[in-house]
Design goal:
mainly beta, five-stranded antiparallel β-sheet, 2 helices
Length: 508
């Protein structure tokens, strides 16, 4: 095999589905070193997928496909969980109260959208061929000039290089100190930590080790960082509280995990109510049964495949919305409307963007109308809320932000920017989507490319100055997209020696 032979997800999928069982051993599953920084081929289905078995991963040189017990909870569209002082089974979520539980839960600062440039027609970013670069399909990691030549944005927009995290970036966030933080997988493994960007665009470790760290968000007006992840590689979804001195579990035992990466606690965002919202994936691909002889399909529990609403101080939570297979990222607009990216089945069906509302169901696992013949049939009494935008198979939408800045034109305000992970034709890159576009439901609709030429774009956020920061998984690069004549000062040292990015985040 050459170093351009696999995508990251194809490797993990092949391991999970096709390997045979052996007794577990205490080893760390790694991404082959030849794949880190390699090209990004198109991700395709694996023909050996068997829907009647729930793949799980055993920590051994050989991966075992076994039946997995599904945690059960009381069925209710508004199911809730309240921590108690008694011991609970490991399959039941448990919570640890915050030492700052008496602190008021504050919502994010209300944004002011005044002062943006007039609305304009935004041209489409060009696409560049995946050949002839310094590392074959793409420039090499340190070939920043090559990337700046390769990356394309529409006329009127500009791209600058911000820096590089030491590992594979999952998601990014900006702290009160103006510095850029990221969840990072280390050394080609599924172990990682929170990193922070320093002066000169380098990074350093900020937290203790976290298994499969993914979503992260700062509690408004504080330096307290919340991170989603796992307590083991195989199961145990968790919410962590992180600061410069400690990494604490707030909730563990959350539903997890269908694959080594993904289908776990994912993206995080604080809402108008001051509560924390979390996307959490399904523990199966299509509700395949752990015991087909006894039951045709697995039961989807209340807290998997959903958006959770969490009090981060007490650990209490409830199901806010359900029927999302693998919501990777979530974000609120300036009117507190919630949006989510949702990654579809192993065979591709179900990639989409959702407008998320409380106490509604978004259809998972009832995907027969999407082309999944072996998915369960929809109950006649279940009302399913349609997608905001149904995407082609294998788009694999990842990071999501709502533009609430004033640097970009007015017609981009309260619209969505989404990173498409996969390199299928016409996709992969940073896409612009207007949720009010009346043509969204049309089969001819195509999200508009705003930034192309990346390898595996994984997240996007709005910086305090109104520019966009875009992270790429493969090399850990972060890029800034600005509009017009906006200019940026070079990183300068803070009192802690860190990177200082422009920000309008309120100080404590």
């Amino acid at each position: 095999m050459t170093r351009h032979s696999f995508s990251f997800f194809a490797i993990i999928l092949a391991l999970v589905i096709s390997a045979c069982g052996t007794e577990p051993a205490q080893v760390v599953v790694t991404i082959p070193s030849t794949q880190i920084g390699a090209g990004a081929p198109i991700y395709t289905a694996t023909a050996s997928f068997t829907p009647s078995v729930t793949p799980t991963v055993t920590l051994s040189p050989t991966v075992t496909s076994t039946a997995t017990a599904t945690p059960t909870f009381t069925a209710s569209p508004t199911a809730s969980f309240t921590p108690t002082a008694t011991d609970t089974p490991t399959s039941t979520p448990t919570a640890t109260a915050s030492p700052t539980a008496t602190t008021e839960l504050l919502p994010p600062t209300q944004v002011n959208l005044d002062g943006a440039p007039s609305a304009v027609t935004i041209p489409v970013a060009n696409r560049t061929a995946n050949t002839g670069w310094s590392c074959g399909d793409f420039p090499c990691a340190d070939d920043i000039d090559g990337f700046l030549e390769r990356i394309s944005v529409p006329d009127g927009f500009n791209v600058t290089y911000v820096g590089r995290f030491d590992g594979q970036v999952q998601q990014i966030a900006i702290g009160l100190d103006g510095r850029l933080y990221a969840t990072v997988l280390e050394n080609g493994t599924h172990l990682g930590a929170v990193y922070v960007m320093q002066a000169g665009g380098t990074s350093e470790r900020y937290s203790e080790t976290i298994i499969s760290p993914n979503g992260l968000v700062f509690q408004p007006s504080t330096n307290v960082l919340y991170v989603s992840g796992r307590t083991t590689l195989e199961n145990g979804g968790a919410l962590y509280r992180v600061d410069a001195n400690s990494t604490q579990v707030v909730i563990d035992g959350l539903p997890c995990c269908f694959q080594l990466i993904g289908n776990q606690p994912n993206g995080l965002a604080f809402g108008e109510d001051g509560l924390l919202y979390m996307g959490i994936g399904a523990v199966t691909d299509r509700a395949e049964s752990p015991n087909p002889a006894r039951q045709p399909f697995a039961v989807v529990s209340d807290f998997e495949a959903s958006i959770l609403q969490i009090n981060p101080h007490t650990g209490e939570f409830n199901s806010y919305a359900s029927g999302l297979r693998n919501p990777f990222d979530i974000a609120f607009d300036s009117n507190w409307q919630l949006y989510a990216t949702d990654i579809g089945l192993v065979t591709g069906e179900g990639d989409r963007i959702l407008e998320v509302n409380q106490d509604v169901h978004y259809g998972f696992p009832y995907y027969r109308t999407r082309g999944c013949a072996d998915c369960p049939a929809r109950p006649s009494t279940l009302e399913i809320t349609p997608d905001l935008l149904t995407l082609p198979n294998y788009t694999i939408p990842h990071g999501l932000t709502v533009y609430t800045g004033t640097q970009f034109p007015q017609n981009m305000q309260n619209t969505l920017f989404v990173t498409f992970w996969n390199g299928t034709e016409g996709r992969q890159g940073l896409m612009w989507i207007d949720p009010d576009d009346p043509t969204l439901s049309s089969e001819e609709y195509q999200p508009q490319p705003l930034m192309t030429g990346l390898i595996r774009p994984t997240d996007v956020i709005v910086d305090g100055d109104g520019s966009l920061l875009v992270a790429d998984f493969t090399y850990g690069h972060v890029w800034r997209v600005s509009y017009g004549e906006a200019s940026f000062q070079l990183p300068e040292a803070t009192s802690s020696g860190g990177f200082l990015a422009p920000t309008n985040t309120p100080q404590p």
